[in-house]
Amino acid sequence: MAIERPATTEVNAAPPPRHGRDLHLPMTTILKVIGSGLGLWAVFLLWPEFLMFLLAVLMAVTLHPAVRWLEGRRIPRGLSVAIIAAFTIALVAVFVMFVMPPLTAQLTHLLQNLPEFRARVLGRIPERYPGIHKVVRELFETTSASMAAGTFGRWFAWGQSAISGVVVAVVVLVLTLYLLLHGKSLYAWLLAFVPRTYREKLATTVHEVSDVVHAYVSGQLLAVLLFAVFTAILLTILRVPAAAPLAVIAGFCDVIPVLGILLATLPAVLLALAVSPTAAVTVAVAYVAYHLFETYLLLPRIYGNKLKISSLAVLLALLIGGKLQGIIGVVLVLPLVAAYPIIERHWLSGYLSARVLADHKALAKAAETGSEVAMDEVLHGEKHASERLASSRGSK
After folding, report:
1. pLDDT of 216 higher than 70
2. Tell me: the pLDDT tens digits for 161-177?
3. Which stretches within the chain are classed as H helix?
4. Closest-CA residue to 257 (of 302, 224, 222, 235)
5. What is the band of 311 on the pLDDT scale with cuts at 50, 70, 90?
6. What confidence tier does 244 reach under pLDDT thresholds 50, 70, 90?
7. d(C-alpha 271, C-alpha 242), whole Å
8. Taking 90 as the threshold, does the pLDDT of residue 10 lie above it?
9. How many angstroms separate the CA atoms of 394 and 396, rounded?
10. Burial track 82-94 (b if 16+ CB lie within 10 A, e otherwise)
11. Cβ(303)–Cβ(338) below 8 Å
12. Could you write out the DSSP letters of every residue in 212-247?
């Protein structure tokens, strides 16, 4: 006898709730992430070459007005670039022929007679200043130790560095000449990637930033040359040892605002003290006087209104640039900092408050005139005179 089983009814039970979330990434997003990672990896690998290209861009922007001036004299662009290249090579040849021999000879003489110079300097410092004696002795001992480290391996390493420096200089020069010759077409090709709604704004920004870069690089080169020539003449007249190396050091240190004059003055005063205390005092006074002349008279006339950076901003920018990329970072960071007001005016005005823009504009004018009225108004949250005038007119 068969036993009948009760019929079972099928019920569509709901699936148990899931506590997790499904993440669906489109293939295009995945490809973009992979492409961005590969791009960052390529930038990391090619960073030294990118820095060389930036240096070439700075030099090309600086020399472009010269090319434009030659073209205005109906000289073709190719011939204009060739003239600039020949002039640059001639300057390098003059430096090698007339500056390098005395520079090398005086530096060798200084290193060979360093103990004698140290004895002269210490003999002219009174014994009642033991701290100064200690500092001077350590400075000379450090220099002697670096001289003693000139073994074959050390000289070989320096030779490799010199060769690398020459190669980098040649590559930067070639890139600079190429940018002068074909930079306009390259710039137009890159600008074509920018949407048309932003293209005019970007072109205006690039033009104004180029003016700032040209003012900075050309002005800095002129200031370095003038300070180096001044120190060479001064130290030669006073018969200070190693006048040519000290002049080169002064030129390099002149790039660094505020701190540069201290770095240039200290070795010059020490070696002038080996001649006489009068020579040391004369060198110190002349260096400080020239620094004041350069800061308050020469550089404002060279830069004009195109480069207005506070000393504190300069020092912070130099610390950051030097920490990140050394000497190249120091060279590149100041034009970028000087270009910020242009970027703020064209690209950040829609994101920043109108009061921020007004305050920055008032502070920039105050920095030019030396007035602290705008600074006090910003610190106390007050309105500027222009804002008060506008609000009073609106109320009427």
Report:
1. yes
2. 557 777 888 888 999 99
3. 27-45, 47-72, 77-94, 100-112, 114-123, 130-148, 152-191, 196-237, 243-253, 259-273, 277-293, 299-303, 311-338, 340-347, 354-369, 373-379, 385-395
4. 224
5. low
6. very high
7. 8
8. no
9. 5
10. eebbeeeeeeeee
11. no
12. HHHHHHHHHHHHHHHHHHHHHHHHHHTT-SSHHHHH
d(CA 308, CA 300): 9
Closest of 238, 248, 229 to residue 271, by C-alpha:
238
Residue 50 amino acid letter? F
Task: Give the number of other Cβ atoms within 10 Å of residue 123's Cβ.
Answer: 9
Q: Measure the CA–CA gap between 180 and 258, rounded to whole angstroms.
A: 34
8 Å CB contact between 106 and 245: yes
Angle between the 196-237 and 243-253 helix axes, to the nearest 10 degrees? Answer: 150
Confidence (pLDDT) at 55? 87
Token couple for 81: 């670039």
pLDDT tens digits for range 105-139:
888 888 888 888 888 888 888 888 788 878 778 77
**Residue 175 burial by Cβ neighbours in a 10 Å radius (0-12, 13-18, 19+):** buried
Among 60, 61, 83, 62, smallest CA distance to 71 is for 83
Pull the structure tokens for residue 172. 């930067």
Residue 254 · residue 105 · CB < 8 Å = no
Q: In this structure, what are the phi and psi dihedrals at residue 13, rounded to the nearest 5 degrees? A: -75, 145
- Measured distance CA(236)–CA(265) in Å, rounded: 15
Rounded CA gap, 226 and 224, in Å?
Answer: 6
CA angle 210, 213, 215 (to 5 degrees): 110
DSSP 110-132: HHHTHHHHHHHHHHTS-TT-HHH
Residues in CB range of 80: below 8 A, 6 or more apart: 66, 67, 70, 71
pTM metric for this prediction: 0.72
Mean pLDDT of 206-219: 84
Q: How far apart are CA 279 and CA 282, in angstroms?
A: 5
| Residues 64-103: tens digit of each pLDDT | 999 999 999 999 999 999 999 999 999 989 988 888 888 8
Q: Which amino acid is at 221?
A: L
Q: Do 177 and 85 meet the contact criterion of CB atoms below 8 Å apart? A: yes
The label of the residue with tokens 């090698």 reads: 96
Token couple for 180: 């002068």
